[in-house]
Amino acid sequence: MEYHECSQEINRNSDGTRGLDDGQSQEDATEHKGFVQALKLILYLIIFGALAGKFLTGSYLWEYEGKWIRLRTYFPPPQRLFTESELARYDGTDPDKPVYLAIDGDVYDVTKGKAYQQGGPYHILTGVDAARAFGTGCFKTHRTHDLRGLSDVEMKGINHWKKFYENHKNYFQVGKVSHPPIDPSSPIIEGCDTKNKKQSGAKKDTEERRALVQDKDIHQEF
Ligand code: HEM
User: Fold this and answer.
1) Spatial CB neighbours of 124, under 8 Å, sequence gap ≥ 6
2) Are 14 and 96 within one domain?
3) Percentage of the chain modeled with pLDDT above 70
4) Which portions of the sequence form the region Disordered (predicted)?
């Protein structure tokens, strides 16, 4: 009598069709059961985590409000390349257009942010790549992408705001802005909190912002 050790041997079924032997189908069934059980366990853990979040923080998502819960993260709008003058048209002065701002080349739709509307404390940042102002706080004199001469702390400030826009649940990237090259021999822009303090009106800006806005949490990290 001949023995076949291969578990995948194909036999004749009672109806004459060919199929895998019983051992193989049992193995498949066990594997399938294990997989379903693992899925169930993950589902229970998710439900338990969500309920615990609701109980402890009042939110099923543990107060998470980042980009991963917004549909646009998974279905991003088509990205566009802006010139500086094209970008300037999206500064909120035309009520039929969305409000855009750029930071270090990346253009974001910030229409949902009240602070950017006309008369708002950060309207000055719209329609332009004012990356430098994000690092220095000189909103009037540093409305430029020119980052030459900035300190590490100021660069850190810019990176903080880049991440802020990248991860914000209400803002989303719509493209990039192309800038003409900066002439390396042109003078580095002066700070506004030393010589230019009067001219920039930085102190006045701060006071206006303090009066106009309420939530200060977003500045905590820098
Ligand atoms: C380097 C200096 C600063 C930079 C670059 C900066 C930039 C910003 C930006 C980009 C926002 C985001 C607005 C949004 O999308 O929700 C914001 C919000 C805000 N800023 Fe500043 N800021 C600076 C300094 C200050 C100071 C000195 C104050 C207070 C005296 C202040 C008060 C606020 C408040 C309260 C908000 C919340 C606005 C809102 O939710 O409507 N900021 N800031």
Assistant:
1) 130, 133, 139, 140, 143
2) no
3) 77
4) 1-26, 183-222
Q: 112 and 37 share a domain?
A: no
> What is the pTM for the complete model shown?
0.73
Number of domains into which the chain is organized: 2
Question: Which structural domain range is residue 131 located in?
Answer: 77-181+201-206
Verify whether ligand 1 is closer than 6 Å to residue 169 (CB atom). Answer: no
State whether 42 and 93 are in the same domain.
no
| Residue type, position 134, single letter | F
Q: 66 pLDDT band (50/70/90 cuts)?
A: confident
pLDDT at 1: 42
**Smallest CA separation from ligand 1 atom 1, residue:** 137
Query: Is 219 within the bounds of a domain?
Result: no
Query: Which CATH number do you get for residue 105?
Result: 3.10.120.10
Tell which one of 106, 110, 117, 122 to mutate to probe ligand 1, the residue whose CB is within 8 A of the most ligand atoms. Answer: 122
What pLDDT is recorded for position 194?
Answer: 39
- Is residue 69 within 8 A of residue 169, CB to CB? The reply is yes
Sign for the pseudo-dihedral over CA of 220, 204, 140, 93: positive
The burial class, CB within 10 Å (0-12 / 13-18 / 19+), for 76 is exposed
pLDDT score recorded for residue 82: 98
